């Protein structure tokens, strides 16, 4: 018999963690990164708590939709804006998009007309052991040019 992974999630802990984060950051807009765990029970629980969601793929959008989450509660934030994925997000009701490059912004403008956009800015941390800035976000001066 082939072994399969087994995952156990304490949904009460998920709820408690969301509430603690909201209490610590009452003015912040908090989005759950669906890639962390796209399981339907987790998504339904967070949706019931009024959460919003960060999605980065067609599969993540579809998982949210299957869990009964309206597209208006999703923000599409993939660093690579494939036209088909942007179009699928828009057709699914997503109206918030995050971009990192001028090309990403252009893809949103073309395939998601009238959408709300947010620019992800990569702060400079030259002493960082793990410089993620090269993958996520753009330099502040590049953001101003968009």
Automatic annotation (TrEMBL):
Residues 12-142 form the Orn/DAP/Arg decarboxylase 2 N-terminal domain. InterPro entries: De-COase2_N, De-COase2_pyr-phos_BS, Orn_de-COase, PLP-binding_barrel. Gene3D superfamilies: Alanine racemase (3.20.20.10). Keywords: Decarboxylase, Lyase, Pyridoxal phosphate. The keyword Zinc-finger does not apply. SUPFAM superfamilies: PLP-binding barrel (SSF51419). Its cofactor is pyridoxal 5'-phosphate. It holds the Pfam family Orn_Arg_deC_N. GO terms for cellular component: cytoplasm. Coiled coil: none annotated. GO terms for molecular function: ornithine decarboxylase activity. One of its GO terms (biological process) is putrescine biosynthetic process from arginine, via ornithine. Belongs to the Orn/Lys/Arg decarboxylase class-II family. This is Pyridoxal-dependent decarboxylase, pyridoxal binding domain protein. It comes from Mycobacterium kansasii.
């Amino acid at each position: 018999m082939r072994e399969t992974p087994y995952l156990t999630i304490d949904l009460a802990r998920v709820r408690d963690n969301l509430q603690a984060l909201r209490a610590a950051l009452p003015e912040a807009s908090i989005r759950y990164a669906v890639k962390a765990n796209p399981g339907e029970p987790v998504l339904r629980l967070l949706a019931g708590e009024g959460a919003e969601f960060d999605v980065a793929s067609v599969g993540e959008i579809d998982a949210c939709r299957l869990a009964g989450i309206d597209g208006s509660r999703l923000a599409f934030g993939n660093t690579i804006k494939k036209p088909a994925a942007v179009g699928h997000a828009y057709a699914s009701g997503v109206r918030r998009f995050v971009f990192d490059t001028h090309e990403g912004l252009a893809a949103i403008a073309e395939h998601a007309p009238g959408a709300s956009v947010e620019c992800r800015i990569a702060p400079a941390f030259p002493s960082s052991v793990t410089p993620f800035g090269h993958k996520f976000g753009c330099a502040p001066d590049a953001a101003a040019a968009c």
